Structure formats: C-alpha cells, structure tokens
Amino acid sequence: MKEIKAHDYKEVYQWLGLNLNTLGCVMLDLEKLEIPMSMYVNMGSLVPNIPLYESSSKERFWIKGWVAGDVPHITLLYGLIETAKNYEVHIQKVLEGWELNEVEIEDVGYFASPYDDEDYWCIVAHIKKTPELLGGHSRLEFLPHINTFMGYKPHMTLCYIKKVDEEQRDLLISDFKKEFVGRKLKVAAGLNLGGN
Predict the structure, then answer these.
(1) N or C terminus of the chain: which is more exposed, having fewer CB within 10 Å?
(2) pTM of full prediction above 0.70
(3) How many domains does the chain have?
(4) What was the pLDDT predicted at 194?
(5) Does residue 191 lie in a domain region?
(6) How confident is residue 13, by pLDDT bands cut at 50, 70 and 90?
(7) Spatial separation of the C-alpha atoms in residues 23 and 133, rounded to whole Å
C-alpha cells in the first residue's frame, strides 16, 4: 500500500491557507558526521555516479548535499501551525523536566522527494525510538499542529543525492549502514526552533 502524506493533499492545505514548507518545527541538533575518507571519490560526489543534490529554491534551503557534516538534527515535531519561535514559551512548558542526551542510529534508508519539481533521494539515518525520544515528541503533540506524514519516524538526514541510479543508491546505503548503524550521537543542549 502506498504511504500517504500531507503533500498528497496540497489543495486542502492551500484552502486552509497553510504552506507545508513553512510549518513550525522543533529539532534537536546532533554532533556532526563526516563522510568517511574511504567513501570519498571526488568533490561533489560520494561514490561514482552519485552526485550530491542541492535545491535551487530558497524556500527549500535545507536541501543541500551532505548535511550531516553541517548541523545535523532530528525533528522532534514538525507541523506546528505557526513558527516554533512563536510557541517558544509553550514548547518550554510542555517539555519541562524532559531531556535527551544521546540518540542511536538504528538503520539507514532513503525517501524520494515529495516535490514534483525536485528529483532527488534523501538518504537518512533512522534513529532508535526510545521512551525518552517518544516522550518528547508526544509532549509536543499537545500544541496545535498537523501531521505531514503518518506516524513519527525519527531520522537524521545524511545527504540529498540526485535521483540517478538505484543500484548505486543502494550500495551507498549499504556502506552507510556498515559505517553508522549502532553509532550513538550526542544531543546538543537546547532546542533548535528552525528559521521559518
């Protein structure tokens, strides 16, 4: 069965006056991940025939090649009706007494671009769902939001690559699994409330 997502119902959100790209987001910043030297091939490419992808849209500023080496993060909740900065006092209140010091990479996978005008795959590190992580997400669900995907799937984006060759994509994912699965990453102090 095809997984449905909010992007499948663009006309609903247009009617509601909501832009799915500018909903509020609460994130946790993580320590950086560098591309292992063994995986370097040349600048702008991770393995042969897999060029990194960057969006030309300023509205999609987060789609920019190898992002795990910049400021990697996991999303605790995406979909707040307003920018997270407008809800900051309420976010702090519902998260009072909650903390998370580290997360663990459980698997590596990908998803395709939800945008008709952007042809890429997003390679992600799936994060192990712990009671602490799920607790923080559940607390934030008390705030006005919409879900843009079914179910909470905590992940850290590793990179965006051009949608070229499925076999090469799968080899890349296999290499990332060997390198990253089981790795624990420190969570930075404080919350990242996004730039929207």
Answers:
(1) N
(2) yes
(3) 1
(4) 83
(5) no
(6) confident
(7) 21
CB-based contacts of 6, cutoff 8 Å, min separation 6? 13, 20, 146, 147, 148, 149
Pairing label, strands 184-186, 24-29: unpaired
Does residue 112 lie within any of the structural domains?
yes
CB burial class (10 A; 0-12, 13-18, 19+) of residue 189?
exposed
The verdict on residue 42 lying in a domain is: yes
Helix boundaries (H) for the chain: 10-16, 88-94, 131-140, 166-180
Residue 110 sits in a domain whose CATH number is 3.90.1140
- Residue-wise pLDDT for 91-144, tens only, equals 999 999 999 999 999 999 999 888 888 999 999 999 999 999 999 999 999 999
The model's pLDDT over 91-105, given as tens digits with 9 standing for 90+, comes to 999 999 999 999 999
Domain around 86: 6-186
pLDDT tens-digit map of 147-172: 888 788 999 999 999 988 888 889 88
At 91 the three-state DSSP class reads: helix
Which residues share a beta bridge with 110?
123
The string of DSSP letters for 109-160 reads: EEEE-S-TT--EEEEEEEEP--HHHHHHHHHHTTSSB--SBSS---EEEEEE
**Residue 193 falls within a domain, yes or no?**
no
